[in-house]
Amino acid sequence: MPGERRATVRLTSKADALLLPAIERSAGELFRGIPDLAWVADDELQTVERHQAQARAGTSWVIVDEADQPFGFLSAEEYGRELHIWELAVRQNRQGRGAGRALLETWIDYARSRGLKAITLTTFREVPWNAPWYARLGFEALSLAGAKDRLASVLREEERRGLPGERRCAMRLQL
Known about the structure:
Order of helices and strands: EHHHEEEHEHEHE
Structural class: alpha+beta
CATH topology: Aminopeptidase
Mean pLDDT: 90
Strand content: 25-35%
Distance between the termini: 35 Å
Low-confidence stretches: none
Largest sheet: 7 strands, mixed
CATH class: Alpha Beta
CATH superfamily: Gcn5-related N-acetyltransferase (GNAT)
CATH architecture: 3-Layer(aba) Sandwich
Number of domains: 1
Number of strands: 7
């Protein structure tokens, strides 16, 4: 639209952190369309405290509208020479318009500027907006053996919390 300001990606503020669980919940609603994974829409969210800690660490970014209101976020942590994405979420009514890609591209640039070697994450193998989406952006699925200790541990913890291990995978983007 003429005159419409584009969305902006910026660091998460302490005030933004209060809004991020609702964004995560909204994004999760998409799982209701997959009958055997519908329960994920009601699964545990990252806490406001964790979002605030990631904001303080500078490892959480939001995408905001023209009124500077977040409608998506990406939160991560650095582990040695890698950046691990814990959550990428976009409010359901804003999905499919490039917000997730904008957040991820910002993170890739950030990781490269810090001299990191890779970006990692864990996700569902077959859910279209999970592993297949990341694969289109250059991420490679890792076997459990290729997942190394840290990622294998994350996958085991997810399974312990109730996520179906056989449907999950670790992924890596070499930088």
